[in-house]
Amino acid sequence: MNDEQLNRVLRSGRVPERSPEYWTEFPEVVVRALQRGGTPVVAGAVGESRLNPVRRRRSIALALAAACVVLGVIAGFRLGRLSAPRTPEGLAMSRYLRELEALFPQQIQALVVEQGGMRLMLSDRPDVPISAPVYLRICDRDGDAARCRTVITFSGQRVRLNGDEFEVLLDAGGGVIVVARQGVWSSDGLRSTSLPFRIQAHVLENAG
Amino acid sequence: MVVPEEEQALVSRSRNGDPEAFATLVRAHQRMVHAVAYRMTGSLADAEDLAQETFVQAYRQLASFRNEARFSSWLYRVAMNTSLNWAKREARRRRAHRDWGVELDGEAAVNSGGDVRDDRGRVQEALLRLSPKQRAAVVLTIYDGLSHAEAARMLGCSETTVSWRLFMARARLKRLLKDLVTVEELRV
Known about the structure:
Helix content of chain B: over 70%
Number of helices of chain B: 9
Radius of gyration of chain A: 27 Å
Oligomer: heterodimer
Order of helices and strands of chain B: HHHHHHHHH
Largest interface: A-B, 43 and 62 residues
Strand content of chain B: under 5%
Structural class of chain B: mainly alpha
Largest sheet of chain A: 5 strands, antiparallel
Shape of chain A: extended
Strand content of chain A: 25-35%
Distance between the termini of chain B: 32 Å
Distance between the termini of chain A: 35 Å
Number of strands of chain B: 0
Largest sheet of chain B: none
Shape of chain B: globular
């Protein structure tokens, strides 16, 4: 079954029709429920404080303190993200991959994240060597974000993105090497040659 | 059908506590809200409760509605959030019943075979086998035609997360509904 067939099957399951009386009565049922307890927030009252001045000042001080705490947490989180590779996206990818590995053990060659969704590249047989998953993001040097591609793959795999083929390898120290037709990129920068791409790559963190 | 200008006036009157104005808004959007609720619950009775809860919530939150958005889009978001909250409550309730060994009435029984008439029920049962978040992704994108980006905004998550939920949902639905495709192909 392809996606289009599945969409047709799903849409064939229509919502059961209700009687015309039901549709006539339902708005009245809602209004009765509102009259029993649903109070609207009157637009003009929003922002108008009914608190006395002392309590209002205390509320403002509390709100400011809370805002400082939130800003501190955000700043800390951002700094942490800059220095550590455990990004939420990476953790989510790691989790997705683990779920997929349970379905297709040793068959996953790559998981490609595209604008319209995800594409799974599978081997016909369970012959993909077991190794740490590698996060790879490749963009054109001209900075066209629409042509950036994110891939999760494994050492020894070749992936084809935007017409170019890349071979992904892990070295003994856990560094990533990406071999393209035009040259080589390495995460430690020592073996990199000039390439028409901007590449980010690292071993994918474990979701724990 | 309520035109946007008229709708704005109805929203404004509802904010000022006019129940008749709100009843008109309910009348205009009740089918859409019931459809979302039914897709998310799989039960007409639960959908009715959920639709009512959605409108009560919407009435209470009217101050947060800004007129630059369509009222229907805003209401749709309220309906989806109410449905997801309902799903969380329902999961807790089911866990509690399971822990105490109580059988629930109306527990979705899985239909193993079925004629063409039952296929609609099977589609709904298959949807109920998904997690609420996966189900929400299916409802938003496949039934209501939203793009992944729009669905992500509606659900407050990233586009990648929506794509992933949809990918997993499709894989599961294809397994559950694989024998329906032949019947469906005969109909086309």
